[in-house]
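FAQ: What does the model actually see?

It sees only this:
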Amino acid sequence: MHRATQGILRTAEVLLAIAITLVVVSFAAPTGRTSGHQGEDFRILKNLEPDGEFRRCALERNSSCLNSTFAAQLPTYIEFAFNVSSQPSEKVSLPSRKNVFADSVFIAGNGTHYIPTFVRLYYWAK
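And it is asked to produce this:
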């Protein structure tokens, strides 16, 4: 009888140790998000794609027009860079120590002309 009681107590002790370890690990493990603003998905280009003024700016590759459009759409705590080109693989210089998010849209042209245009927007928290 004495040995059976010792076995039950040791089993309970092991189960309690496992439970405590799991609780400590779940609270001590990093969550991956460092601030509330880091992972926001603004979907700027998806919302702007049907806008005729935005499409005109993109097709004309008017950087100042696009810059003001993006600045008006993004919150002030977000910095951004963008690229407009006819090539899908054109490179952009981006900050290396930030979490950079990307959004892109392809505009085939206007109603009469085929003008392949890729607009890529990159944004990150300041």
